[in-house]
Amino acid sequence: MAVGPGTLPEFFPVAGVRLGIASAGIKTPGRKDIVVFELAPGSGVAGIFTQNQFCAAPVTLSRKHLAAKAPRYLLINTGNANAGTGERGMKDAITCCEALAEKAGVSAEEVLPFSTGVIGEPLPTGKIVDALPEALASTSETRWAEAASGIMTTDTRPKGASCQIDLDGDTVTISGISKGAGMIRPNMATMLGFIATDARIEPGLLQTLASELGEKSFNRITIDGDTSTNDCCMLMASGQYGGPEISADSPALTKFREALQSVYLELAHAIVRDGEGATKFVTIEVSGAAAQQEALDVAYAVAHSPLVKTALFASDPNWGRILAAVGRAGVPGLDLNALEIFLGDVCLVRHGGRADDYSEARGQAVMDRDDIVIAIDLKRGNVKETVWTCDFSHDYVTINAEYRT
Description:
The chain is of the alpha+beta class. Helices cover 32% and strands 25% of the residues. The protein is built from 11 helices and 15 strands. Helix 5 links the parallel strand 8 (192-197) and strand 9 (232-237). The chain is globular, with a radius of gyration of 22 Å. It starts with 16 loop residues before the first strand and ends with a helix.
């Protein structure tokens, strides 16, 4: 179950970025569950990682390797998170990096590992190492769609985005894939995202873009409020296009950032649309806040409310649940008579209670949609924040109750 058509785009190959796919049979025999990114020498890589203190071994190792050398390979496995595995987990992650490095002729520090799947089980390194020759032999610039499927876990469909833009006569390509459907909460989630471009980007700017765009996209989605142990979102720049390097003062930066932002948002939204058991895609807009944090506090109070989320699943315009969530968000000195709450274009709350022009029929008409906007104007300032979430359905409980079976 998912919201919207969810069809993959036409992927534009990114010069200098090749992808390989293989089957290690980690959780399901025959399933393609290993993905390798091969990057041209001189490529830049930046990223953001989970804030969960119980971060997985591959997260710790990727951070370490990223700080030491320019990566040449990314190695992703699904079916096993290699999280909560202690010292053995780190040794297993190192083993996989060393095995790929040996076969590819690079150093182990030039390999970044990523894992997703069940927490607390030892990584089957033998299966992964055995699958590496197949993955390396299959690398191609055109395997984005297969890679999108290869990184899935409880996802019901692959997720991708791709675009090309003209920068002063040179064509720049941006393509990306993501995965995630549950254990999704800002500060990253049980999600992986990989975005690549052939642009040449000044290294410091690359990390700035990865952080800024990740903050406003992947770090603004939530399915269930659970921050995972394995989240990573990587931005790769191969530098293979024909134009000049993009720096902080480049005239082309604004257009490039807008295109990159659209890819980030499309990939992040695709995760929410494929949330475990999701039937609604919900945008929560909080405006009129005095500070960013209070806007986010209100947005997440609504997004994480089980009562709001179950009402959304039932298409029930039970606006009192939204009002209650706003009221418990902890905003000091909130003027209840000033704020307004909207469901789509229908005002629910005004002057501290139900809006005079509200009717159940108008509220129901909005709730019957697949895409819903909940807008809250606090009337306190000029800050606005947006969070994206989904509903809670029977299927969410079933999927997570049966996750290990």
